[in-house]
Every structure is written in structure tokens, then in C-alpha cells.
Amino acid sequence: MAKAKLTSPTIKKAKTTNPSKKRASSSAKKLTAQPSEKTARNSPRRLTVTKVSLLLAASIILTFIASLELYEANRLNVSAPRLTQSQSLLNVKKKGPLAVGLPSLRSLDKCQQGVALNVIAHQDDDLLFMNPAIANEIESGKCIRTVYVTAGDDGQSANYWQGREEGAKAAYASMYQRADNWQSTKALISGHEFEVATLNGVPSMSLMFLHLPDGSPSGEGFGDNRNETLQKLRTGSIKSIHAIGGKTSYTTSELIHSLSVVMNLDRPETINTQAYGAELEGGDHSDHQAVGYFTDQARHSYRGGYTFSVYLGYQSGHLPVNLSETDSTMKQAVFATYEQYDISICTTLAGCRNANTYTAYLQRQYVYKSEPVAAQDSPSSSEPLASSVNRRNICFENSGFIQIEVPNCRDSKS
pLDDT tens across 22-64, in order? Predict the structure, then answer.
């Protein structure tokens, strides 16, 4: 067997470099590739890239905000005509107040006889203190929007104040001589959520419920609602007030703004609310006074022509009967429809007639002040409502717990 020839593998010698040389070369490359910190900061290219990045980030944020608003509109099952995916929320707000799911009454009905806007504290205030005026407006063919600012909860459970809302709906349906069938939806004004109810077959009839807490007659409020009240909001004792059963809250300016949005949306020729003033305090419910004040402030941002009327509350029950038998009978029948849903008062018309308090209101209606305001005119916001009341042939007498208005007397101040 032949012997295999053994060969040694060829081994290539690796190149060796001087370590000090390698370090020097690397340092030279770094110095060549990287400008100084000062140069990099001032590089036009770097500044341009930074600006583009910031603009891109801002665009993403605004698009995200718009998407959230659209999601909220879809959740509420309402349309958002002024907000699209390509619009930012900031740009929309610059164009005007944001109202989602609250169409103008004039867009639903021609409202050839005009629009009447009623701003009320509780769900029976319009029926007790503003009827037959409201029934007359309905009969004349006006479009009607009534805003209930508080839930009228009186510190009680949801069953109570929700029942009162159903009573208000039933009362208005009776005045329209329609079945008590309503469509209720959620809507937004500048992010504040509330409920809107529209009478089936009558798009020109709308009730709005803001659900702010009842403040109690004294304005002290109730513990379950953090003792938050409209009176405290008005006087600055609290910075904001939270709606019952929701996440919405209002500052003074936000509540006034929301009411002014409704005014500019519907463009009413008549604005009705509740009387307020220093001479009425202590003899009326604190919510009546506060709602009158906030409505009076909101109208300063409405530029249309209208008649502004305020109605006496509890004080009206101490004045002479001034309704005809026909009007009083109608008023009692409408209120009897409401009271079936209000567990805190009488449950039959006969029982209500025996309750002296409600009997007095059902036979009376007193306008405390009414003034026409020309289009584009703006009443002075510095002048309180009470100071401009026409006091001719009106004077006040102390009747124990309230001051009452006595007609046809000579007042030395007039």
C-alpha cells in the first residue's frame, strides 16, 4: 500500500495593525463626519425636519380630537353636520358655537307665526306661572321650545324627577291635543350633554332638560348633589355645577353661553323666563331667581328682535285673581295632567283644588316685566333686571315671609 503524501496546510498570516494607529484613524473619521454641536443645532436641514415633525404631530392630535367628537356624536345617535374627519375641533369652534343633535326649530318647521322660547327652573313652573300665556302661543301657531334648567329633583331619587319630566311632556301633549308620545335624544352644546324631547307629529314642539340639581327654596341645596346650586353659581360661591346623573358640568359663563346658543339657533320673537331681583328674594324659590338671572344675561348675546317677559313665581299667589273662568279652567286641566306624575303633590284635580297653594297659582298669571328689544340692539349687561322694572302703580307690602305686589296703589317711588 503506497504511503499517502502528507502536506501541511497553508497558513496565511493575518495583517497586524498598530492599535494606536487604529484609534487615531477612528477619531479622525468621527471628527470628519460629525459637525460641532453648535453647527448641528443651527443646521437649516435639521430645523426644517423639526418643524415638519411638529406640524405632523399637531395634525395627528387634531385629527384624533375630531375623531373623538365624531365618535361621541355617533354614540348619541345624532348628526354632526359641522364636524368632519378633515376638520379640527378648533377650526369648527372658530366658526361658531358647536351644537350637535339640536336642530333649529325653524329648520324643522317654517314657524311662520314665530318662535317662543321659555327658560324655566322646574318642570311645573311654566304650568303654574306662565299659563295661559304658553297655551295662547301654542294656539297661535308659534313654534315652542321650553328649557328646564334643573332636574327639579328636590333632593329625591331619580324616580321622582324623571316622573316630573314625564308630567311636563303629558301636559304639553294635552295643550296640543295630541297623544302623549315623544321622541327623546341626547344632544350637545359645546360639549355639554342634555336631553331633547320632541312631540311626535309636532316637530315645532321641543322640551330640553339640562338636569342641573335643584337648589331648594333657600339655595342651600342637597347633600346628594354636593350642595351645588344655581344660586351659589350665580353668587360665585362655587365655580361650577354638575348635572345629575351625568358627567356634564357648567361654569357661570358656560351656562349663559349654552342658553345664548339656543337663542341664536331658534331666533325667537318671544323669550319668557322667571322674575328675579333684590325685592323678590326671600319670597321665591332660589332656582326661579337664578334662572331668571342667567336667562337675562344670555339674551345680551342674541341679536334678533324679540319681546322679553318675566313672570312672577310664588309672589303671584298673594295677588288678586286675574284669570277669566275659561282660562283658569284650562290651566287647572293642564296642571291636572301634569300632577299625576308628580308624587309630591295632589293626585286628583279635586285634591289639588283643596290645596290652597296650587289653587292660588291656577287662578293667576302675573307678568313682572315685559319689554320689546329691537333687532341688533343689546340691553346693557350692567343693568340688573329688577332696576328697570316699571313700578308705576305698584308698591310692595310686607306679608310676613314675602313682599307682595299690590296693584293700583300709589307708590312714592314711581
Answer: 444 444 444 444 545 444 455 555 555 566 667 677 666 655 5
pLDDT in the model for residue 246: 74
Count of CB atoms within 10 A of residue 378's CB? 12
Q: 280 by DSSP, 3-state: which?
A: helix
- Into how many domains does the chain fold? 2
Side-chain-side CA neighbours of 321 within 13 Å: the count stands at: 10
Owning domain of residue 295: 101-384
| Alpha-carbon Rg for the chain in angstroms | 34
| Residues 76 and 206 occupy one common structural domain | no
**Domain match, 144 and 244 both:** yes
Q: Say if residue 159 is in the same domain as residue 264.
A: yes
Up-side HSE of residue 33: CA atoms within 13 Å toward CB? Answer: 6
Do residues 192 and 236 both lie within one domain?
yes
d(CA 130, CA 212): 21
Strand order in the sheet with 306-311: 99-100, 182-189, 192-199, 205-212, 143-150, 115-120, 270-274, 306-311, 367-373
Supply the pTM of this predicted model. Answer: 0.72
Per DSSP, helices labelled H in 96-229 are 105-108, 125-129, 133-139, 158-175
392: in domain: no
Q: Does a structural domain hold residue 212?
A: yes
Cα 302 to chain centroid, rounded: 16
DSSP string, 309-326: EEE--GGGGGSPP-S-HH
Which one-letter amino acid corresponds to residue 37? Answer: E
- d(CA 317, CA 248) in angstroms, rounded, equals 35
Q: Does 406 reside within a domain?
A: no
